[in-house]
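Dear H.,

Thanks for agreeing to be a second pair of eyes. The structure we're designing against is below in token form, covering all 123 positions.
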């Protein structure tokens, strides 16, 4: 199995930046594509960004393009999400996920999930 632990969430104002981090342990980190999802209260979990096992290929949801950057450090077994120009609608619990499936935009494409970290953006 793999364990994922997110950190870096908090309360910020609109326009601020925040960097989330996910620490992985267990199975070989380099064998998995990594992604960030988010879920607001009463809403479905939605895809944010994905980075391949090599770190070369990345994909972003439309709302994340130009504002968020996903990256990974295989030497440290971590994946990060740099979030800039945050908006109130970015408020959600952000989850780190790992998977080998090619279905990288949907939750069932991932086998392991962290507990999530809360991001709250005030107006």
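And this is the sequence the design step returned. I haven't edited it by hand at all.
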């Amino acid at each position: 199995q793999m364990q994922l632990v997110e950190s870096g969430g908090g309360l910020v104002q609109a326009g601020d930046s925040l960097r989330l981090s996910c620490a992985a342990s267990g199975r070989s980190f380099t064998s998995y594509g990594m992604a960030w999802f988010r879920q607001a209260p009463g809403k479905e979990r939605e895809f944010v960004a994905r980075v391949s096992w090599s770190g070369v290929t990345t994909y972003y949801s439309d709302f994340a393009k130009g504002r968020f950057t996903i990256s990974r450090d295989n030497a440290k077994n971590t994946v990060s999400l740099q979030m800039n120009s945050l908006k109130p609608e970015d408020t959600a619990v952000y989850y780190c996920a790992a998977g080998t499936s090619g279905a990288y935009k949907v939750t069932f494409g991932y086998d392991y999930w962290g507990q999530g970290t809360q991001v709250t953006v005030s107006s």
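Two observations from my side: The longest strand covers residues 18-26. Residues 91 and 120 are 5 Å apart (CA to CA).

Warmly,
E.
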